[in-house]
Amino acid sequence: QVQLVESGGGLVQAGGSLRLSCGASERTFSTLAMGWFRQAPGKEREIVAAIYWTDSSTYYRNSVLGRFTISGDNAKNTVYLQMNSLKSEDTAVYLCAARRFRGRGSLSSQSFYDTWGQGTQVTVSS
Fold first, then answer.
1. Percentage of residues in the chain with pLDDT exceeding 70?
2. How far apart are alpha carbons 54 and 43 in whole angstroms?
3. If phi over 0 gives left and psi between -120 and 50 gives alpha, with beta otherwise, what is residue 105?
4. Rounded distance, CA 115 to CA 99, Å?
5. Helices marked H in 69-125
6. Of 43, 50, 34, 53, the residue nearest 97 (C-alpha)
7. Which residues contact 27 (CB under 8 A, 6 or more apart)?
8. Per-residue pLDDT reduced to its tens digit, 53-77
9. Under a CB-based contact definition with an 8 Å cutoff, are residues 51 and 33 in contact?
10. What whole-number distance in Å separates Cα of residue 109 and Cα of residue 3?
11. Contact of 56 with 113, CB cutoff 8 Å
12. Are 107 and 33 in contact (CB under 8 A)?
C-alpha cells in the first residue's frame, strides 16, 4: 500500500519559517492533486493549502494567504509547503493528502483525497 511521508516539521519561534515536504513511498504513484491539512489538539482537521496538478490551480485557507506557499513536482509526486511568518496559531500536526482518481470534488474538502500521510508536528512558540 502506497504511503505518503511528510518531513520538515519542528519547533520554531513566532515569525520564523519552516518548509514541509511530502512524497510517496512508491515512484509509480500517480496523483491528480495534493494538499496539506492540519489538526490542532481538540480541533477539527482543516485545509491549509492544495494544488491541482492539471492546471496548477491552488487553494489556500484565508489565514495563511501571503504567508504559506504550496509547490511541488508532479512527476515525482512530491509537494512542499513553505511556511513563513509563522504564528502560534499555526501549531498543529500537518498532514499530506493526495487524490489519485478523476472525479468531482473540491480541493478544500477532506473527502476529495484518498491517500493520507501520518503527519508531522509543527510547533510555533510565542
1. 100
2. 32
3. left
4. 7
5. none
6. 34
7. 76, 77
8. 989 999 999 999 999 999 998 888 8
9. yes
10. 20
11. no
12. yes
Among 120, 115, 107, 126, residue whose Cα is nearest residue 48 = 107
Helix (H, G, I), strand (E, B) or coil at 58: strand
Measured between alpha carbons, how far is 85 from 64 in angstroms, rounded to an integer? Answer: 9
Q: Nearest CA to 119 among 3, 2, 5, 41?
A: 5
Hey, what's the cell of 115? 491517500
Q: Which residue has the cell 509547490?
A: 71
Kindly tell me the sign of the dihedral angle through the C-alpha atoms of 9, 12, 14, 19. negative
Which of 113, 96, 3, 90 has the alpha carbon at shortest distance from 40?
90
Taking the C-alpha atoms of residue 65 and residue 24, their distance in angstroms, rounded to an integer, is 26
Predicted confidence (pLDDT) per residue in 35-50, tens digit? 999 999 999 999 999 9
Round to the nearest angstrom and report the end-to-end CA distance of the chain: 39
Tell me the three cell numbers of residue 37.
491539512
pLDDT tens string 75-84: 888 999 999 9
